[in-house]
């Protein structure tokens, strides 16, 4: 039963913050050679259980058992690059031979529907080429440039949802979790209005609780999750008025879109101006030009106006390109501070008006000490993630597959909320390692 507005500990309209961290899948990290060998071994194991009589007729069991019996982590691959390449091609030829046998007219049709066989087929499509000619079939490994994008590339035969991820220079195989939590300022809270007087044992301002958990594969960027996270909070009537995020979640377009679609203000740093003048800290960057959006005209620091204004698409993004006449710019005494062009005039590239104005305002704000102090609130979500890792082991998946991993994360979040509520209800200082009996139950369910 949902809590009434008078007794709800977390309500819409306050402050929240979100951050992400990596989650290691419950599988081993495998290089391409190991991945091919282990995938073929896993398929043979599945076929040996499902159709042992058929398998003995389809392949040379004794030879293949010696080659694929041990798991890949139980032996060392050849040290020579040429021998490793030779082994990879042996794997490739054996895999294609097994797939041909499974899809042969006299093979049971249900064999090709086995999940392990489906994984083998997908893995071989992603990692090998085969050319069939009169001289026979030639198998080659795909070059790195021919591999599918990371979002589609399988990383394990046992967990087909796990992907290779990269964040802040760290590689891992698995998933990413996005944790959202409340962070209302205690000075702004009214205990009576929050219903604390109606809750026996409640001491002090409302606890800061986890409000949302989103689990994705490791290739999904933070910016791709900005809107889904807000949809998730909106579905539970928990949208904040202000949402504190790091720069990975934000762009000027998202700041505008989230405010328009959800009524939420994103408190986040944005990328600074990357023009040569801005990077050098000298000369006239874009902010030195006055933009008249209604007249579709820009004015330079010396008072000259632009002669060309045109909508454009730059790198797939809508933009506005503004140009100044070369005859105006060529004799200008401060030309060297304005443009590096030897013959042409100054050119400006802007985003659409609404987006550009938000971007300019955000850049101006984040240079203010008061804004920086306010943004410091976001750092607390890192403490929440640290507690989740220390208490629940959230950074290592216990199960295979995205759905089970997400369910594990939900149980972990509930356990952390119970720890914090226990501290609040019973009036003792929050010990990040203290686990209540109810929280222990939730942790045991997650395990």
Distance between the termini: 26 Å
Number of strands: 13
Helix fraction bin: 25-40%
Number of helices: 14
Task: Name the helix and strand elements from N-terminus to C-terminus, one letter apiece.
Answer: EHHHHHEEEEEHEHEHEEEEHEHHHHH
Stretches where pLDDT falls below 50 for ≥5 residues? 1-6, 191-201
How does the overall form come out from the CA principal axes?
A: flat
Reported for the largest beta sheet, the result is: 6 strands, mixed
- Strand percent estimate: 15-25%
Oligomer: single chain
The pLDDT mean sits at 86
Cα-atom radius of gyration: 29 Å
Helices and strands: which structural class? alpha+beta
What does this entry look like structurally?
The chain is of the alpha+beta class and 447 residues long. The protein contains 14 helices and 13 strands. Strands 1, 4, 5, 6, 7 and 8 form a six-stranded mixed beta sheet that branches. A three-stranded antiparallel beta sheet has the order 11-12-13, with no helix packed on it. Strands 2-3 form a two-stranded antiparallel ribbon. Helix 1 packs parallel to helix 4 and helix 1 runs antiparallel to helix 5 (115-127). The longest helix is centred in the C-terminal third of the chain and has 25 residues, at 402-426. It is flat and about 85 Å long. The two termini are 26 Å apart.
Record the SSE blueprint.
Elements: E1 15-24, H1 32-50, H2 52-58, H3 61-68, H4 81-102, H5 115-127, E2 128-133, E3 136-141, E4 163-167, E5 170-182, E6 210-217, H6 226-235, E7 242-244, H7 252-262, E8 265-267, H8 276-280, E9 290-292, E10 297-299, E11 308-314, E12 317-323, H9 326-329, E13 347-350, H10 353-365, H11 369-375, H12 380-392, H13 402-426, H14 437-446
Parallel strand pairs: 1-7, 7-8
Antiparallel strand pairs: 1-5, 2-3, 4-5, 5-6, 9-10, 11-12, 12-13
